[in-house]
Write a structure and sequence with these properties.
The chain is built from two helices and 45 strands. Strand 19 and strand 20 (about 185) form a beta hairpin.
């Protein structure tokens, strides 16, 4: 028995090393096999071209691409992690990204995220950072939702729909959401139950649409979360209709052809240029007009003057002619009060912007002199106002229409000046002056009329130009002969403040308003030269030329004024 037991023991002893060796080999083989099966760790901040796990993006200003056919899968961790330092990132997924945790986690700033592949399964795509544009042309799924968003997403373009819409439950909505439509059965849907915020809705550029209903494009949203529920795309009008549970997207029949916003705006800019010339003409009437005077008196203390005036804005095409009657009364030797009426004699402008003759402008003035002969201090206060009609027609630019309408064009101004006349010698006198002037020119609101050639008439709001200017310069007068006196002035005007309305209209989708006078000349020269002829002490003929640079860039006005005054 011992021998037998011994042999058995010996046999068993001789086999034990072999068994231990086999078990060790098996363990090593399993470990090697497991190591060979484990995916490689993705290279940080690099494109993914082979299967790997745990891609970490640290550095800014990169474009990272997951290649087609590549799987990026991670067990018990995030598959892609955008760290806070990862800013200005462009990320393109053409493969598959999955995880048992968050598929992607963004703490950085992604400029553009494009998903052409598959994201999921996993918890969800978790965004706490910033995403400029997220375009989902593939699928994004998750155990809880597709995207869990608590940070801003500026624009989300989505094609994912069918029976598994893109889900953003309990998230912050994107600012802009565009539905990608490729066919009546291939279009984006969004579920956002219990989500916050609101968004602008549009159709993704490149979508293929047709009249009909695209059902259930939104689930879990209420009317307050949709900033708009209608629009146009591809020649069709669309609306979002609530069926009691979801929102359906309905495309109506094709829209009739009409003017584009781009062409309409180009035509409006032509009109804006014409209106700037019209405003310049009104300014040229206001400013010298507040210097109208009649200072030739006799025993009754009354002065009457008749004047003819020509004002042009950069050429004869914009020349305006007018007649003026001025009346003043000498209250006492050092104080006179007066007024005038000025009537335009012709229409001005061009075929697009035409100012009618209209009603006459009226003005009032008061002048105080320290001395009756005009030497010494002088204070002058003047006010003028008027109103005319302006006819405005839009030129045809490509698809734009010749819409036309009529508006009121009103102007008013008030000016206060202080001067001091100083005799240089028996022949010459200079009168340095300083003053302030406030003016306002306004084109009233108006609407174009619809017609066979104007299918989209525009309506315009008020257009105003207001300014307060400081005046500085000097008058001069010199007797060249016993009855002939040379007169004139040199000066500058500087705007202390100037406000212009934006030029805009409603009636064509996507029209944008723009600055009416965006290149203001704040400091401008003015000059005048003329003469006086005294026939006797109660009859006088004068002629004056006035040159002005206007606030409207590169616009200059020239005014010629001839006056015959009689004193009583």
């Amino acid at each position: 028995m011992k021998y037998t037991f011994g042999r058995a023991t010996a046999r068993l002893a001789s086999r034990r090393p072999v068994s231990v060796c086999a078990l060790s080999t098996l363990t090593a083989c399993l470990l090697i096999a497991r190591a060979e099966a484990a995916p490689l760790t993705c290279t940080p901040d690099a494109d993914v071209t082979v299967n790997c796990s745990a891609l970490v993006i640290n550095n800014p200003n990169q474009t990272i691409t997951v290649g087609a056919g590549v799987t990026l899968d991670t067990w018990n961790s995030m598959s892609v992690w955008f760290k806070p330092s990862a800013t200005g990132i462009t990320f393109i997924n053409n493969g598959t990204i999955s995880s048992s945790d968050e598929t992607l986690f963004n703490q950085g700033s992604i400029t553009e995220f494009v998903n052409n592949g598959t994201i999921g399964p996993g918890f969800h795509f978790y965004n706490v950072g910033t995403i400029g544009t997220l375009t989902n042309m593939g699928t994004i799924t998750g155990q809880f939702r597709s995207i869990y968003n608590t940070g801003p997403i500026h624009t989300l373009n989505n094609r994912q729909g069918g029976n598994a819409p893109l889900a953003m439950n309990q998230s912050v909505l994107p600012t802009n959401y565009n539905i990608v439509i490729l066919s009546p059965s291939d279009y984006g849907k969004l579920s956002a139950v219990s989500s916050g915020g609101s968004m602008n809705v549009g159709i993704y550029t490149g979508s293929v649409v047709a009249p009909g209903t695209y059902e259930d494009v939104f689930t879990g949203l209420d009317a307050t979360q949709l900033n708009n529920t209608s629009g146009t795309y591809g020649g069709y009008a669309w609306t979002l209709n609530f069926d009691g549970v979801n929102y359906d997207l309905v495309f109506a029949s094709a829209l009739p052809p009409g003017p584009t916003a781009v062409d309409t705006q180009s035509a409006m800019r032509v009109n804006a240029s014409g209106l700037r010339s019209a405003f310049a003409v009104q300014t040229a009437y206001l400013n010298p007009g507040m210097s109208y005077d009649c200072a030739l008196f006799d025993s009754k203390g009354v002065c009457v003057a008749a004047s003819g005036r020509s004002t042009s804005v950069q050429g004869p095409a914009d020349t305006a002619l007018s007649g003026i009657v001025t009346l003043s009364y000498r209250v006492r030797p050092t104080l006179r009060l007066g007024g005038y009426v000025e009537q335009t004699l012709n229409a001005t402008g061009d075929a697009n912007v035409r100012i009618r003759r209209g009603n006459p402008d009226v003005g009032l003035f008061a002048v105080w002199n320290a001395q009756a002969d005009g030497d010494g201090a002088q204070v002058r206060l003047a006010h003028r106002q008027g109103q005319k009609k302006v006819d405005i027609t839009r030129p045809v630019v490509a698809s734009s229409e010749p819409g036309s309408g009529t508006a009121d064009l009103s102007s008013r101004g008030t000016q206060l000046t202080f001067s001091h006349g100083v005799r240089v010698n028996d022949t010459w006198r200079i009168s340095p002056y300083v003053g302030v002037r406030a003016i306002q020119i306004e084109r009233s609101a108006y609407a174009e009329a619809a017609s066979a050639s104007v299918t989209a008439p525009l309506s315009y709001g008020e257009l105003k130009e207001r300014s307060v200017s400081v005046l500085l310069g000097s008058h001069f007068a010199g007797r060249m002969a016993p009855r002939l006196t040379l007169t004139g002035f040199l000066g500058v005007e500087h705007d202390q403040s100037r406000k212009s309305s934006d030029y805009g209209a409603l009636g064509v989708t996507a029209l944008q308003s723009f600055d009416f006078n965006d290149k203001v000349r704040k400091t401008r020269p003015v000059a005048s030269l003329g003469f006086l002829v005294d026939f006797d002490k109660t009859h006088q003929l004068s002629a004056q030329w006035v040159y002005r640079k206007e606030a409207f860039t590169s616009t200059a006005t020239n005014t010629a004024l001839v006056t015959y005054a009689v004193g009583f």
